[in-house]
């Protein structure tokens, strides 16, 4: 399986179709509010993995009921619930997929294809059950669950091996030692400009507004973009930093995500000023 997944990651032949699909998805889901909704910005957590719980749970439950006598109606209902709920989950997944790097999109494309096969099989299973062909419906359902299971395996690879839609910057916290660390002299910090410094070996950005200074991890949680090279914008009365790679936007006074594709907040370090020197520590 490792060798197969590596081949998928390196399958540049998928890019022709993947690039076109990415443009189509971004064209259809153009409004920022729609993209943020589907990314899970309002939730502070990726929306797609939360949404897939309903179809997967329904389909697994239907498969169990198919093994029990007298449960045709309940199994049919669960098959219908799973099939219908898979559609919005797929839209959220496509929205996330369109913001990934190319090697991630290749695996994501096969993940989506496998799930599409599963969805088609479950649609056929539902049609067979509703027409009274429950034996065929059960067989198609089990085949659909197998295809969806393969898709879930690929989704796990995307998240846990390739880091898709996970907070890739939070691991930097493990590189910072305990205690307070000197960061900069207050007199050296300009007002309302991004400054990059290091805490131990971890890059952070500083933003001074009056006597208040924000110390934020510099790697964007979405794809490790350099926030220190980003643009500062005022959004809804708050100064925000915009990642120069994919446009993820975070409030500089709290780290809250304002716009995706990142669904995660950015980590802020607690600060204090001692004898005119700014210090920071682990949260």
Instruction: Describe the largest sheet.
Output: 4 strands, antiparallel
Share of residues in helices: 40-55%
Shape: elongated
Poorly predicted spans: none
Residues in β-strands, percent:
15-25%
The strand order across the widest sheet is 2-3-4-9
- What count of helical segments does DSSP give? 8
Give the H and E element order: HHHHHHHHEEEEEEEEEEE
Distance between the termini: 39 Å
Helix/strand class: alpha+beta
- Tally of strands: 11
Mean pLDDT, rounded to whole units? 96
Structure description:
- This protein is an alpha+beta fold.
- It contains eight helices and eleven strands.
- The strands form three sheets. It has a four-stranded antiparallel β-sheet, with no helix packed on it. The protein has a four-stranded antiparallel β-sheet with strand order 5-6-7-8.
- The protein is elongated, with a radius of gyration of 23 Å.
Topology:
Layout: H1 2-9, H2 15-28, H3 32-39, H4 47-51, H5 53-66, H6 72-97, H7 102-130, H8 134-161, E1 181-185, E2 194-199, E3 202-209, E4 212-217, E5 231-235, E6 238-242, E7 249-251, E8 257-259, E9 268-269, E10 271-274, E11 277-280
Antiparallel strand pairs: 1-11, 2-3, 3-4, 4-9, 5-6, 6-7, 7-8, 10-11
Helix pairs in contact: 5-6, 5-8, 6-7, 7-8
Pfam families: DUF2231, Rieske
InterPro entries: DUF2231_TM (IPR019251), Rieske_2Fe-2S (IPR017941), Rieske_2Fe-2S_sf (IPR036922)
Cofactor: [2Fe-2S] cluster
């Amino acid at each position: 399986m490792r060798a197969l997944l590596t081949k998928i990651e390196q399958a540049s032949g998928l890019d022709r179709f993947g690039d076109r699909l990415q443009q189509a998805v971004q064209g259809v889901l153009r409004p920022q509010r729609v993209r943020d909704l589907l990314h899970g910005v309002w939730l502070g957590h990726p929306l797609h993995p939360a949404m897939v719980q309903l179809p997967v749970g329904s389909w697994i439950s239907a498969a169990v009921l198919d093994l029990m006598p007298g449960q045709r109606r309940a199994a049919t209902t669960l098959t219908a619930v799973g099939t219908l709920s898979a559609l919005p989950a797929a839209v959220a997944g496509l929205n996330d997929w369109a913001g990934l790097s190319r090697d991630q999109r290749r695996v994501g494309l096969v993940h989506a294809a496998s799930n599409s096969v599963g969805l088609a099989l479950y649609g056929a299973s539902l049609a067979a059950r509703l027409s009274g062909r429950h034996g065929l419906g059960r067989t198609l359902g089990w085949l659909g669950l197998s295809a969806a299971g393969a898709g879930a395996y690929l989704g796990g690879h995307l998240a846990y091996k390739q880091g898709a839609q996970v907070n890739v910057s939070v691991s930097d916290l493990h590189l910072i030692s305990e205690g307070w660390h000197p960061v900069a002299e207050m007199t050296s910090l300009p007002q309302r400009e991004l400054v990059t410094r290091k805490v131990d070996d971890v890059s952070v950005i500083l933003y001074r507004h009056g006597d208040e200074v924000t110390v934020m991890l510099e790697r964007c949680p979405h794809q490790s973009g350099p926030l220190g090279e980003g643009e500062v914008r005022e959004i809804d009365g708050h100064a925000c930093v915009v990642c120069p790679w994919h446009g993820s936007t975070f409030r500089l006074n709290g780290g809250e995500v304002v716009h995706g594709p990142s669904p995660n907040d950015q980590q802020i370090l607690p600060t204090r000023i001692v004898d005119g020197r700014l210090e920071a520590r682990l949260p």
